[in-house]
Specification:
Layout lengths: L1 H18 L10 H14 L13 E4 L13 H13 L12 H5 L3 H4 L3 H13 L4 H14 L15 H12 L3 E9 H12 L6 E13 L2 E12 L5 H9 L6 E4 L5 H8 L6 E6 L20 H9 L2 E4 H4 L10
Parallel strand pairs: 1-2, 1-5, 2-3, 5-6, 6-7
Antiparallel strand pairs: 3-4
């Protein structure tokens, strides 16, 4: 009788025990250990590294850090689909770059003009819409659009190990922010549902907007003018402007995150800088120093001296995306 009772107790408590194990999609190794040691250090109220809850701020890049960024940034792929949908009303685009390249499915030609071409695409496809119209358009796109190589919904291309890090930090009193070069309004469409990050904790790039009255209703209308690029040196500036506290932990994957990592880890007290290194060509993509998307060069060089954690995706993640069978 006692043996049967003991087995029942064991069975009932087993799921709770398993659930209590943090970061289950991470293999045992230096990165998992470094993250957990840091959290233990800053949450130990009697210890020398204790950080009050209000100061436990963690910032995360999005593209390439929280979800896939190959073969192109999701913001661009959204804009490309918008160009194709709007093309019947713009016959002039057939002979005008970057639109000509998009309509001919030649993204390389479309983007040959660099940042100027990209901004031209964004302005043409975003400006003139109200924020409500944009949100509805983006939500519909995320419902139907699929990644060109995996066939997955873009919101399924998130990294399970990083979802676990965000949950683990929040469970230990951290407030998590997304600080990305992507458009702030596009990210806010899915960030709360996918990452558990509310709209007010999303910091991104933006174009200007103005208040208008349309049909006697107040609206905010996106304008064909750049407001702020939240990338590279812009990230610490945006963090200071929007958050008002220097983070104690920063997670990135490219040189676009270099200054955010530098700014975060230069503060007083315990600090954590983490770089997601894309090393898994079989389950995802392998790229770093020579990549046109998510280039990781200078940040990788500085990581050892600055004691940043460099995550080897292939070796340290037993799962990439949050689905079965990996």
């Amino acid at each position: 009788m006692f043996a049967r009772y003991a087995l029942i107790v064991l069975f009932l408590t087993l799921p709770i025990t398993l659930a209590a194990q943090p970061l289950p999609s991470w293999n045992e190794g230096k990165s998992r250990t470094a993250i957990m040691d840091f959290v233990e250090l800053v949450t130990d109220e009697g210890g020398p590294g204790f950080v009050p809850t209000a100061e436990r701020i963690a910032v995360f890049d999005n593209d390439g850090t929280l979800w896939a960024e190959k073969p192109a940034y999701t913001q661009l792929l959204f804009a490309v689909d918008r160009v194709k949908a709007m093309a019947p009303s713009h016959p002039e685009w057939k002979g005008e770059q970057p639109f000509k390249g998009i309509l001919e499915n030649d993204l390389e030609a479309a983007l040959a003009g660099g940042e100027e071409a990209l901004m031209k695409i964004i302005m043409a496809t975003h400006a003139g819409m109200t924020t409500g119209e944009f949100e509805a358009e983006a939500a519909d796109w995320f419902e139907t659009a699929r990644h060109p190589e995996t066939g997955k919904a873009y919101t399924e291309m998130v990294y399970q190990p990083m979802l676990e890090v965000m949950e683990y930090l929040r469970a230990n009193g951290f407030k998590t922010f997304i600080v990305s070069g992507g458009g702030v309004e596009l990210m806010r469409v899915f960030a709360e549902e996918v990452y558990g990050v509310p709209p007010e904790q999303v910091v991104g790039s933006s174009i200007k907007a103005e208040f208008e009255m349309r049909n006697n209703e107040p609206v905010i209308v996106k304008q064909p003018e750049l407001n702020f690029i939240n990338d590279k040196a812009g990230k610490p500036v945006a963090i200071n402007h929007h958050i008002g506290r220097r983070p104690i932990a920063a997670f990135g994957n490219s040189d676009g995150d270099l200054q955010m990592l530098q700014w975060t880890t230069a503060g007083d007290g315990p600090r954590l800088g983490v770089i997601v290194h894309h090393t898994d060509a079989e389950r995802e993509w392998a790229y770093d120093r020579k990549s046109h998307v998510g280039k990781l060069d200078q940040a990788l060089n500085e990581a050892p001296d600055r004691e940043w954690v460099v995550v080897d995706m292939k070796a340290e993640w037993n799962v990439i995306y949050p689905d079965k069978g990996q």
